[in-house]
Amino acid sequence: MAQTSSIDQLMQQIADEYESLSRQLKLIAKHIEQHRSSLMLERISDIASACQVQPSAIVRFAQRFGFSGFSEMQDVFRQAYTDQARAAPNYRQRIRKLISTRDGKVGTGELTREFIGASRSGLDELAAGLDDEQLEAAVILLQQADNIYVVGVRRAFPVASYIAYALQHTSKRAHLVTGLGGGHRDQMRSVRAGDVAIAISFAPYGKETLECARMAHDNGARVLVITDSKLAPLARTADALLTVAEGSAFAFRSLTSTICLCQALFIALAYRLEIDIEEIGAQPVD
């Protein structure tokens, strides 16, 4: 039996060894990270097909991390997620069933409820997998920052825009890196030690965001990463890492969980800053 007795320990071990894995094993690692809650239901052939590898590669992956084979590794996920799976429906299966069993068009109200349901499922996963230690580290980074640079492109841009807007309601100097005219690097040129860059990106991951995160790291700034996997390219530059997996319906991924996480992060920061102000104000004046 593997020494990693919990899902979190196993995923951390996979993240630590990710760079040394072969291309095929990296594909399997990403699949496991993104489908951990449903892995107990998947056959080895299903995973192999999704990763476009041979089933023997799945066995090699399990053995790489101390298991005798796929079944023993799957048991770890089965023990961890059986109760959760009973409580929460699989929305992907429900949506596919909805489409296949309808003779006519899906009603707007029904479609909307399915999307709301998928978003709710994503929020449940966010709550269940929230890393309190990393969330606390993220708040401390922002609390101590001189300047905060926020970068996200394409689907992540609305999230970056919201964070920058929220931070403007604090005493922190916040800068939204818009990349107008292709100027991402130019807008990051003044980042330095004492600053924090918030980098937000989801698969297939924006190269501009990765470049900005690396630039911040190279210049001595700290990096807070919000992404969908501990194995994401941005994770390697992170001083604090927050992961969020969104629910999806009809091939559209929601932003509900990500916005919720960012709002909670801002509220925690604002609360911390207010405490600091009260403590300073409560000190006796000589």
Oligomer: single chain
Within the CATH hierarchy, at the fold level, what is the topology of the largest domain? Rossmann fold
Question: What structural class do helix, strand and pairing data support?
Answer: alpha/beta
Q: Level of helix content?
A: 55-70%
What profile does the largest beta sheet have? 5 strands, parallel
What spatial order of strands do you see in the largest sheet?
2-1-3-4-5
Amino-to-carboxy terminus distance:
64 Å
The appropriate CATH architecture of the largest domain is 3-Layer(aba) Sandwich
CATH homologous superfamily label of the largest domain: Glucose-6-phosphate isomerase like protein, domain 1
* CATH hierarchy class name of the largest domain: Alpha Beta
What is the count of β-strands?
7
Q: Uncertain spans, ≥5 residues at pLDDT below 50?
A: 1-5, 83-89, 276-281
The global form is globular
Average residue pLDDT: 79
